Amino acid sequence: MAAPNKPSRPPAKKAARSGAKKATRTPAASSQAQVAAAPALADVRARIDGIDRQIQELIAQRAAFALQVGKAKGKLAAAVDYYRPEREAQVLRMVVDRNEGPLSDEVLVHVFREIMSACLAQQEPLKIGYLGPEGTFSQQAVLKHFGRSAHGLPLGSIEEVFQEVEAGNADFGVVPVENSGQGTIQVTLDMFLTSALKICGEVELMVHQYLLSRSGRLEDIERIYAHPQAFAQTAGWLRTNLPRAEKVPVSSNAEGARRARGADDSAAIAGESAAHVYGLKKVIMRPIQDDKDNTTRFLVIGRRIFPPSGHDRTSILVFIHDKPGALFDVLSPFARHGISMNRIESRPSHQAKWEYAFFIDLAGHVDDEAMKQALSELERHVAQVKVLGSYPVAVP
């Protein structure tokens, strides 16, 4: 016999009671979850503290081994004799190759650069000349390439940077050579026509130009100080927003910032670091350069060529004979030996009227066999070949 049917609760009431039960449990469950989460957070922080201790111990070990490397090299004359840019480039490339996140390549390269900079400075800090005053993009390039343990020497001009390195007052110099939007910095190329210095490295720096002033008010600005390159990089924005403002060229953007801090009607175009150094405000919060990917390439100059790093660039200066097919004679040896040319630019040679020299960047090191053969062939067809340097390609 079938069981008699029992009256059932209305579905709505059942759902309501069920919901009520859940509602009464929620505060207690939430409280229990918070209690359970507290020890977990403390445990995570304890693990972080333990990792920090390990990192610090390993950095100390690395510094001790760096001192042993210095002792193995024997008694050297100065800090510059301990510096090996090819080795640093190899270390940083391995950092990039090992990186699996979550930190970016750029962050990790910066961390390891500072560790290497501090370890090297145990012997003696490197002295690096750059276009000053403090707060220039050249100073940022110094910090990016040599780290904060190097001693920066702000100088008044690119010519002075060359002179101080040649005299031995600076171990290396950092000078701008080209901008992605505005092309070559000609004074730097012209210095290589007569200087015996060598290129030892390169730095690529993303350049963000800001409009800075004492008041931070756009309507106050009647004149703007900046390096001519900065005016060129921001020409479109200035035409649209400050067409009547007087443009005053200065030797560096940081020098412009130094001048602009003296009056409310003055402004400067410079990097964010110049704003901090000279106490200026951003008139416009975003960068004002016309090219959002605005990048400047800097060269590291020194007194010698270093061994290969495995991924290098060679820069040469070629003085040609005035004859038909002269440029073909310059380029063909590199094509025959499978050497890629990254850049070529002509400049007046300053040796005779209408005579030119070619600045050429090539993939590879001067010690590579293919490069040796190509340069040997080239010398037979031109007036002079001057190897400016072989150096590690900038680590991205």
TrEMBL record:
Pathway: Metabolic intermediate biosynthesis; prephenate biosynthesis; prephenate from chorismate: step 1/1; Amino-acid biosynthesis; L-phenylalanine biosynthesis; phenylpyruvate from prephenate: step 1/1. Residues 1-32 are annotated as: Disordered. GO terms for molecular function: prephenate dehydratase activity. It is found in: Cytoplasm. Its main location: cytoplasm. It comes from the Bacteria. Residues 127-303 form the Prephenate dehydratase domain. Pfam families: ACT (PF01842), CM_2 (PF01817), PDT (PF00800). This is Bifunctional chorismate mutase/prephenate dehydratase. Catalyzes the Claisen rearrangement of chorismate to prephenate and the decarboxylation/dehydration of prephenate to phenylpyruvate. It catalyses: chorismate = prephenate; prephenate + H(+) = 3-phenylpyruvate + CO2 + H2O. PANTHER family: PREPHENATE DEHYDRATASE P PROTEIN, PREPHENATE DEHYDRATASE-RELATED. Residues 35-127 form the Chorismate mutase domain. Keywords: Amino-acid biosynthesis, Aromatic amino acid biosynthesis, Cytoplasm, Isomerase, Lyase, Multifunctional enzyme, Phenylalanine biosynthesis. Its EC number is 4.2.1.51, 5.4.99.5. Residues 315-392 form the ACT domain. InterPro entries: ACT-like_dom_sf, ACT_dom, Chor_mutase/pphenate_deHydtase, Chorismate_II_sf, CM_dom_sf, CM_II_prokaryot, G/b/e-P-prot_chorismate_mutase, Preph_deHydtase. Residues 11-24 have a biased composition (Basic residues).
